[in-house]
UniProtKB/TrEMBL annotation, chain A:
This is Centromere protein O. The gene is CENPO. It is found in: Chromosome, Centromere; Nucleus. The keyword Nucleus applies. It holds the Pfam family CENP-O. Its main location: nucleus.
UniProtKB/TrEMBL annotation, chain B:
The gene is CENPN. PANTHER family: CENTROMERE PROTEIN N (PTHR46790). Keywords: Centromere, Chromosome, Nucleus. It is found in: Chromosome, Centromere; Nucleus. It comes from Pan troglodytes (Chimpanzee). Belongs to the CENP-N/CHL4 family. InterPro entries: CENP-NAC/CAD_complex, Chl4/mis15/CENP-N. GO terms for biological process: CENP-A containing chromatin assembly; chromosome segregation. This is CENPN isoform 1. GO terms for cellular component: chromosome, centromeric region; nucleus.
C-alpha cells in the first residue's frame, strides 16, 4: 500500500529532479550562450576602440606634420608683407610731414611741384605752390602765388642760374607777406575795440594806416599810426610815424607816449604791441579801483 | 535831385532784371531797409522804378551815388562789355610799391580833372584787392556823358588793369597816363588779349587757370579722365585704333590739362607771310610781297573747343602751337610774319 505511492512519489520526485536539473542545465546553457555572445561583443568593441584610437593618433601625427611643413612659410610671408606696408606708411607719413619744414615738393611727370608752407610765430599759415617744368630753360608751369608777390622778378633773377636761391628768395617773400598779413588780421579781429576807424591796408600788407585810442571810452585824443614796410622780406616795419590827431603841440607826457609807441611798433609785431596796450589798460583800471 | 540824375538812375534801374533788383539795391546800400520795405516788388516794373526814383529823391541822390549804382550793375553784367588788358612797367631799380589807396584815388582823379575840366570819376573797392573805376567823359565845354562811361578794374600792387573797350578812343591815352602815374609806374602797354569774360582774362593774365597741384597729402590719386571716350564699354567691341586714340588722349591731356579752360570767344591771326605751296610754278608762289590775310576762330568757349578737336578726330594731335599757346602767352591776337 504505502510502498506503491511512495514508489510513485519517489519516481515523481526523481522526475521533477530531472526536469529541474534539465531546466537548470538549460538555463545554464542559455546563460553560457549569452555570456559567449557578450564576450564576443566585448571583443568587437575592444577592437573597434583600438582601431579608432589608432586612427586618431594617425590623424594627429599627420596634422602635426602638415603644420610643421606649412606654418613656417606662411607666417614669414605675412610678416614680410606687414613689414613692407608699415614701411610704406612710414615713408608716406614722413613725406607728408615735410610740409612742416616750410619747403617741400613732389616729383611730377614734367618736373617738380614745390610747396611753400608759411608760418609766423609758430603758427602755420597759408601754403603756396609752384609747379616747375624741368626743361632748358627751366620754367614755371603754373602756381598759386598771389598776384602782387613779385614772382616774375624773382624768377627773372634766379630761376635759370640758381634754383636754390630762387626758392629761398620766394620763401622769404611769402613768409614775410604771410606774417604781415597775420599781424594785420589779428589787429582787426582781436583789437577792434581800440581802433577808432577802419584799418587801411594794401594787398601786400606793406602799408598800414590806423587810428587808435588807449582808453576807448575816454577823453584822450586818438593816435594816428602809419607803418611802412619797405623791406618786403621783413615782418617789422621800416618806417613808423605816430601822430596825435587834433593836437598841435603835445604835452611832455603825451610826447613821451607818442615816441614810445613809435619805438614799439618798430620793434614788436603789431598785435603784440596792442596786447601790451590792453595789459597796460588793465593795470591802469586796477590802479583806479584801488 | 537833378532831372538828369533822376533820368540816369531810372534808366539804370530799368536795365536791371527783376530777379536781381533786390540784390543790387542791397549792395548799393543807398536806400535804407525801411525805405526798401515800402516798395512792392511784385508790381509792374515801371511802377517799381517810379517808386524807387521817388525814394532816391527823398534821399537827395547825387551823381556819385548814381555812378555807384552803375558800377554795381556792371559788376553783375561784366560780359556785356569787351575787356582789354593793359600791362604797366616800372623803371629798373624802382622803390618798393607802397600802394596807398587814398593817394591813388586822389592822384588819378586829379590827373583826369586837370586835363578835362568835366569828368566824373567814381571808385568801388572789391574784396579781391581790386578797385573798379568808372569814368564818365566830358570835355572842357561839355558835361560828362553818363551813358558811355569807361570802366577800369585795377589790381593794386600788380602791373595789370582791365578796361572796357570804349567807343571814345581819344581818351585812351589820357586814361593810360592817369593809371600809370597814379599807380607809380612808368609805362603802359596794351596786351594782345581781349574777351568778354573778365574772370577768364584775370585767370590767364595772373596764370591762375590751373589750381590743381600734386602733393603728398592728396589721398585721391590722379586719375586719367577719358575725354568723353568710353573705350571699355563692351569687351566684345575692339577698337582698331585704340593705340592711336590713347596717344591722342595723352597728348591732349598734357597740353590742356585736366582743369576747366578759361573762357575766350575768339582768336585772331593776322598773317603777313609769303605764300607757301608744294606745287612749283604757281602764280601765288612767285609773289615777292607777303600775302595779307586774317583768320579768326570764334566759339562760345574757344579753348574747350580746341581741346576737343583732336579727340573728336577733326584735327591731328598735337595741335599747332599757334593754337595751344594762347593761355600760356596770354594772347589771342597774333601777327605772324615770315622770320
Amino acid at each position: 500500500m504505502d510502498n506503491g505511492s511512495s514508489v510513485l512519489a519517489h519516481l515523481e520526485r526523481l522526475e521533477t529532479q530531472v526536469s529541474r536539473s534539465h531546466k537548470q542545465s538549460e538555463e545554464l546553457q542559455s546563460v553560457q550562450a549569452q555570456e559567449g555572445a557578450l564576450g564576443t561583443k566585448i571583443h568587437k568593441l575592444r577592437r573597434l576602440r583600438d582601431e579608432l584610437r589608432a586612427a586618431v593618433r594617425h590623424r594627429r601625427a599627420s596634422v602635426k606634420a602638415c603644420i610643421a611643413n606649412v606654418e613656417p612659410n606662411q607666417t614669414v610671408e605675412i610678416n614680410e608683407q606687414e613689414a613692407l606696408e608699415e614701411k610704406l606708411e612710414n615713408v608716406k607719413a614722413i613725406l607728408q610731414a615735410y610740409h612742416f619744414t616750410g619747403l617741400s615738393g613732389k616729383l611730377t611727370s614734367r618736373g617738380v611741384c614745390v610747396c611753400i608752407s608759411t608760418a609766423f610765430e609758430g603758427n602755420l599759415l597759408d601754403s603756396y605752390f609752384v609747379d616747375l617744368v624741368i626743361q632748358k630753360p627751366l620754367r614755371i608751369h603754373h602756381h598759386s602765388v598771389p598776384v602782387f608777390i613779385p614772382l616774375e622778378e624773382i624768377a627773372a633773377k634766379y630761376l635759370q642760374t640758381n634754383i636754390q636761391h630762387f626758392l629761398f628768395s620766394l620763401c622769404e617773400y611769402l613768409n614775410a607777406y604771410s606774417g604781415r598779413k597775420y599781424q594785420a588780421d589779428r589787429l582787426q579781429s582781436d583789437f577792434a575795440a581800440l581802433l577808432t576807424g577802419p584799418l587801411q591796408r594794401n594787398p601786400l600788407c606793406n602799408l598800414l594806416s590806423f587810428t587808435y585810442k588807449l582808453d576807448p571810452g575816454g577823453q584822450s585824443f586818438p593816435f594816428c599810426a602809419r607803418l611802412l614796410y619797405k623791406d618786403l622780406t621783413a615782418t617789422l616795419p621800416t618806417d613808423v610815424t605816430v601822430t596825435c590827431q587834433g593836437v598841435e603841440v603835445l604835452s611832455t607826457s603825451w610826447e613821451e607816449q607818442r615816441a614810445s609807441h613809435e619805438t614799439l611798433f618798430c620793434t614788436k609785431p603789431l598785435h603784440q604791441v596792442f596786447a601790451s596796450f590792453t595789459r597796460k589798460g588793465e593795470k591802469l583800471d586796477m590802479s583806479l579801483v584801488s | 535831385m537833378d532831372e538828369t540824375i533822376a533820368e540816369f538812375i531810372k534808366r539804370t534801374i530799368l536795365k536791371i532784371p527783376m530777379n536781381e533788383l533786390t540784390t543790387i539795391l542791397k549792395a548799393w546800400d543807398f536806400l535804407s531797409e525801411n525805405q526798401l520795405q515800402t516798395v512792392n516788388f511784385r508790381q509792374r516794373k515801371e511802377s517799381v522804378v517810379q517808386h524807387l526814383i521817388h525814394l532816391c529823391e527823398e534821399k537827395h541822390a547825387s551823381i556819385s551815388d548814381a555812378a555807384q549804382l552803375d558800377i554795381i550793375y556792371m559788376q553783375f553784367h561784366q560780359h556785356q562789355k569787351v575787356w582789354d588788358v593793359f600791362q604797366m612797367s616800372k623803371g629798373p631799380g624802382e622803390d618798393v610799391d607802397l600802394f596807398d589807396m587814398k593817394q591813388f584815388k586822389n592822384s588819378f582823379k586829379k590827373i583826369l580833372q586837370r586835363a578835362l575840366k568835366n569828368v566824373t570819376v567814381s571808385f568801388r573797392e572789391t574784396e579781391e584787392n581790386a578797385v573798379w573805376i568808372r569814368i564818365a567823359w566830358g570835355t572842357q565845354y561839355t558835361k560828362p556823358n553818363q551813358y558811355k562811361p569807361t570802366y577800369v578794374v585795377y589790381y593794386s600792387q600788380t602791373p595789370y588793369a582791365f578796361t572796357s573797350s570804349s567807343m571814345l578812343r581819344r581818351n585812351t591815352p589820357l586814361l593810360g597816363q592817369a593809371l600809370t602815374i597814379a599807380s607809380k609806374h612808368h609805362q603802359i602797354v596794351k596786351m594782345d588779349l581781349r574777351s568778354r569774360y573778365l574772370d577768364s582774362l584775370k585767370a590767364i593774365v595772373f596764370k591762375q587757370y590751373n589750381q590743381t597741384f600734386e602733393t603728398h597729402n592728396s589721398t585721391t590719386p590722379l586719375q586719367e579722365r577719358s575725354l568723353g571716350l568710353d573705350i571699355n564699354m563692351d569687351s566684345r567691341i575692339i577698337h582698331e585704333n585704340i593705340v592711336e586714340k590713347e596717344r591722342v588722349q595723352r597728348i591732349t591731356q598734357e597740353t590742356f590739362g585736366d582743369y576747366p579752360q578759361p573762357q575766350l570767344e575768339f582768336a585772331q591771326y593776322k598773317l603777313e607771310t609769303k605764300f607757301k605751296s608744294g606745287l612749283n610754278g604757281s602764280i601765288l608762289a612767285e609773289r615777292e610781297e607777303p600775302l595779307r590775310c586774317l583768320i579768326k576762330f570764334s566759339s562760345p568757349h574757344l579753348l574747350e573747343a580746341l581741346k576737343s578737336l583732336a579727340p573728336a578726330g577733326i584735327a591731328d594731335a598735337p595741335l599747332s602751337p599757334l593754337l595751344t599757346c594762347i593761355p600760356n602767352k596770354r594772347m589771342n591776337y597774333f601777327k605772324i610774319r615770315d622770320k
